[in-house]
Amino acid sequence: MHNTKKITPLYDKQGDMFGVFISPALWAAISKDVQPIIDSHLEKTQAPMPEPMDDWNRLMDFWDFAYEVDMDVACELCGNATDDWMADSPRKFRLKAANIGGLTSFECLSCKARVSKQHFKDKISCSCTPFCSKK
C-alpha cells in the first residue's frame, strides 16, 4: 500500500502530538510561502537571550584604559543614541557581547543594527553594521 499523505502528524507514547512530517516535495512547493510565517511566529514567541552582564562586569573589573568607562552608544544608521545604555527606560540598546580585551557590541533596539565599540589604550573605535536576517 502506497502512502500518499504529504503531511504526517507525529505522536509520542502518550498519544500527544509533538510535531509533523512534511514530505520533501510538499515542502519544496510551500516553503517560500510558509517559512516567513514560521519565522515571524518564532520571532514573536522566543525570548531574547539574556544580556551577557557577567562579561560586562568582568570588563569593568579589568578596566585599565587611560579614560573612564564610556556608557554612550549611538547608531549611525537610524540616529538612535544614549548617554548611558544601562540607564535608559525603556532601553535603546541591548548588550550583545563584551570581553576583557575591550570589545563591546550592542543591538540597536530601533533598527536592530549591531553597534561595536573597540576600546584601545588611547582611543575608542566605533562601527555600525546593518541588521541582516539569517536567511
Topology readout:
Blueprint: E1 7-11, E2 17-22, H1 24-45, H2 53-61, E3 73-74, E4 81-82, E5 93-98, E6 103-108, E7 114-119, E8 124-129
Antiparallel strand pairs: 1-2, 3-4, 5-6, 6-7, 7-8
Written account of the structure:
This protein is α+β, with helices and mostly antiparallel strands and 135 residues long. It has two domains: 7-45, no CATH class; 53-129, no CATH class. The chain has two helices and eight strands. The strands form three sheets. Strands 5-6-7-8 form a four-stranded antiparallel sheet. Strands 1-2 form a two-stranded antiparallel ribbon. A two-stranded antiparallel ribbon has the order 3-4. The longest helix has 22 residues, at 24-45. It is elongated, with a radius of gyration of 22 Å. The relative contact order is 0.12. The model has no long low-confidence stretch (mean pLDDT 89).
Total discrete domains? 2
Helix-strand topology string: EEHHEEEEEE
According to DSSP, the number of beta strands is 8
Shape: elongated
Strand content: 25-35%
Strand order of the largest sheet: 5-6-7-8
Intertermini distance: 39 Å
What does the oligomeric state look like here? single chain
| Class by alpha and beta content | alpha+beta
Q: Major beta sheet, specifics? A: 4 strands, antiparallel
The count of helical stretches stands at: 2
> What is the helical fraction, as a range of percent?
10-25%
Radius of gyration computed on alpha carbons: 22 Å
Mean pLDDT: 89
Q: Uncertain spans, ≥5 residues at pLDDT below 50? A: none
